Amino acid sequence: MTETLKTAAGRTFTAEVTIGENGEAVYDVKRVGQMGAFPVGTFVIHPDYHALPEVEGLVNIQFGGGSPTDRHQRTNVPALGSASLPYVIGHQLVNPAGLVDETSVFRLRGLAGASTGTGTSSGDATPNTSARTADLVTALVRNYLARDDYDQLTATYNASLAPQHAAAIAEKADELSCKIMSIGERIAELTKERDELSATTTPQSADITPDMAPAAQLTGQITTLQFTMEDLIAERAELTK
After folding, report:
1. Does the pTM exceed 0.85?
2. Could you read off the pLDDT of 122-174 as tens digits, one per residue?
3. Which residue in 24, 56, 128, 199 is deepest, having the highest Cβ count within 10 Å?
């Protein structure tokens, strides 16, 4: 399928779009201008690849086809950069929620460039490269989100992450359980210490208010830990439901 893309900066691109086995949308892009159309490179778009995303709804754009983890194993890496670093490499995670109107453009953070698509070290992309790449990436993501099969593609990709997702949940749940147990032990220690203090009567200075007493301070620490414990228990329940 061939798509025509108009960017916020007024540039025109065409893209041959194919779908990968895990629901990735692969865009082979050309720039259209006064001198005709010339190749730009391949962009692979899919949901966030993290098994437990910190922010829901992020979209990942991979620069170049092929390996999702090793940029040196990729093909047709996009050339959108400067004379010294013509290729944009790696990937970017963007948040579609930031596209508040038709003129909105993603802000790409930490975009890297290289003198060749693979096999050479990377450097920081120039501001002009970042702006040019963001302009095209925004148009690509808008097209991806508007696809008729977007929900199906997202479901297919997320299903491919199911084993990693289950493993990450189990690991996180174990981590939370350890924290809950540790806090419970600390609460028990402080409660015992407070009860022992309460059982003894020691003269207090007139300058010490009841809230300043050691037992009262321990009660405050216990209460804070109980709040933290409740939050962790709720987080574990939400994670494993």
Report:
1. no
2. 999 999 999 999 999 999 999 999 999 999 999 999 999 888 877 877 888 88
3. 24
Interval 213-223: pLDDT, tens: 788 888 889 99
Task: Give Cα separations from 35 to 4, 23, 38, 170, 186 (angstroms).
Answer: 17, 34, 9, 56, 72
Q: What one-letter code names the amino acid at 110? A: G
- DSSP H helices, the chain, are 127-145, 150-160, 162-198, 214-240
Q: Which residues pair with 28 in a beta bridge?
A: 16, 42
Question: Count of alpha carbons within 13 Å of 179, Cβ hemisphere only?
Answer: 17
Structure tokens at 73: 């194993």
What is residue 207's three-state secondary structure? coil
* 221: Cβ contacts below 8 Å, ≥ 6 apart: 190
How many CB atoms are located within 10 Å of the residue 68 CB? 16
Query: Which is it for the CA torsion 120, 125, 129, 130, positive or negative?
Result: positive
Closest to 107 (Cα-Cα) out of 89, 122, 92: 92
Question: Above 80 in pLDDT, residue 203?
Answer: no
- Please give the single-letter amino acid code of residue 36: G
DSSP 35: T
